[in-house]
Amino acid sequence: MKTKILLLIFMLLGYLAITQETVTLALCHSKALENYPLSRQNELLPESHDLRIKNLNKNYLPQMNINGQAHYQSDVTKTPFQNIPGISIPTVEKDWYKLSLDINQAIYDGSSTSRQKDLEDIILEIDKKGLDIELFRLKERVNQVYFNVLLFREKVKILDLHLSNLISKLKDVESGIRNGTLLSTNEDVLKAEIIKAEQAIAEVKINLKASIYIMNELTGLTLNEGTGFTVPEVIIDLDVYANNRPEYFLFSLQQEKINASKKLTGSALLPRFSAFGQAGYGRPGFDMLKNEFDDFYMIGARLNWKPWDWNLSRKQKEVLDLQNEIINSQKETFDKNVRIDLENKIAEISKAEELISRDKELIELREKISKSVSSQLDNGIITSSQYLTEINAEASARLDLESHKIQLIKAKLDYQAVLGNL
User: Fold this and answer.
1) Are residues 135 and 36 in contact, defined by beta-carbon separation less than 8 angstroms?
2) Are 106 and 60 in contact (CB under 8 A)?
3) Domains of the chain, residue spans
4) pTM of the entire predicted model
5) Which of 119, 187, 203, 419 has the fewest CB atoms inside 10 Å of its own CB, making it the most exposed?
6) Rounded Cα–Cα distance for residues 151 and 404 (Å)
7) Rounded to 5 degrees, what are φ and ψ at 298?
8) What does the alpha-carbon distance between residue 313 and residue 266 come to, in Å, rounded to a whole number?
9) Angstrom distances, CA of residue 46 to CA of 42, 194, 261
10) Architecture of domain 25-59+112-270+311-419
11) Do 25-59+112-270+311-419 and 62-75+90-108+271-304 agree at the fold level?
């Protein structure tokens, strides 16, 4: 029996440990990034890049081709001495056969391969930054859900306190009715208000439960209504401006890509050197007058150079320059919008701070009024409806204060998010 009791105690303690677990915003960010399917691209993108670089490195390896050909032609080359008596010059057959191995080794390709590799490196960084943008948006979504949980939690606390006050006052009113000092309608009014308060609590709890469910989906955690959510401490410096948004860095990377593309375009006008070789077997061989199957080979060097392309490369560079100007305008526009958003966030911070200050003053006044009307209701001076008007005003003021506190922290975090500091 004692063993069973101890087992139940340990199970209860384990349950309490689970329900009282506390999470932070940073933990939710970390788990959301781990749980997000798109995060797998952190491994896939470098692997894809490495494969493309390996393929480009093959440009430095010898290129080998096996070629075969058989054909019949209407005529063959003849010499003017073939019909002179006493001179025997063989006639080449009209059916020709050839099988060869051709090898080409690049010596200098106008830096085309190395510049293409530089371009691939920048493309990898662009892909990574695009992923960073998506993950940044995920963290913003986690922020929204996290603060919804905090806000709903505070609403439940205030509404529970309000309900407790109503239930306590209902007992006083019931006592007054029994003593004949209060009318029974006062009891009905309070009971109706209690039902409304219970409805409000139930509605907020449903929203709270939904927000926790969404957080679990985002993070892969197993949070519940007993899990504690730590209110983050956010410190901002309004005097320092540094745009760290991933979108802003993406513009710079796109400009680097344009510069790399210009260099790659310029390599088209550079000379190319290569060595080549050919070995084969066929009829005829290199000796055209030897009318039999023979082997043959050839080795040498080759120069390819197109010094003039009718200004095609120059026009392509002009197009890239225009694209660079377009990105510059987009970058400046984005930065301008960030500064505008920051001003809006600063206004929200100032507004929340001012509201909190006023909320505290209002609550002090509402507490005095609530005490006064409570005594007046007990003495039958006012009705329950009049009492509820004032007591609801106090509950609303308390709820506003807690909401504004959370809104202030959220506004500061949004300010950091606008700058890209998440």
Assistant:
1) yes
2) yes
3) 25-59+112-270+311-419, 62-75+90-108+271-304
4) 0.83
5) 203
6) 9
7) -155, 140
8) 7
9) 7, 61, 21
10) Up-down Bundle (1.20)
11) no
pLDDT tens digits for 284-320? 888 877 888 999 999 999 999 988 888 888 999 999 9
Low-confidence ranges of the chain (pLDDT < 70): 1-20, 80-89
* pLDDT digits 0-9 by tens, 360-414: 999 999 889 988 888 888 787 887 788 888 888 888 888 889 899 999 999 999 9
Task: Measure the CA–CA gap between 409 and 182, rounded to whole angstroms.
Answer: 46
Angle at 189 between CA 188 and CA 195, to 5 degrees: 90
Quick one: pLDDT at residue 4?
44
Measured in residues, the chain has a length of: 422
Q: CA-based Rg of the chain, rounded to a whole angstrom?
A: 41
Tally of CB atoms within 10 A around 60: 12
Give dist(CA 174, CA 79) in Å, integer.
Answer: 134
- The average confidence (pLDDT) of the chain is 89
CA 404 to CA 363: how far, in whole Å?
A: 13
Nearest to 251 by CA among 325, 320, 337: 325
Q: Tell me the pLDDT tens digit for each residue of 397-412.
A: 888 898 999 999 999 9
Architecture of domain 62-75+90-108+271-304: Single Sheet (2.20)
Residue whose entry in the numeric block shows the structure tokens 């970390």: 30
